[in-house]
Amino acid sequence: MKPYEIKNMIIDDEFEGEEFVTIDFAYQDEDYSITLKKADLEIINTWVFKEGTSLPANLPDQLIESIREDVKKKI
């Protein structure tokens, strides 16, 4: 079983000439969002949502790689 649950995934086609994938997921009882470049799945930003605000998130590399693998399968 994976330590996270993907809740939503949005693919932004041709946003300012580039395509991005935004993934909303739950991890350790908190909600996160990560945006990746669609072409190479490079991280653009990561956020954790706490108390009605969003803050930059520092996620483990292993978690990010697992999410990238899920995204590759879905796109």
UniProtKB/TrEMBL annotation:
Q: What is this protein called?
A: Uncharacterized protein
Which organism is the protein's source? Lysinibacillus composti
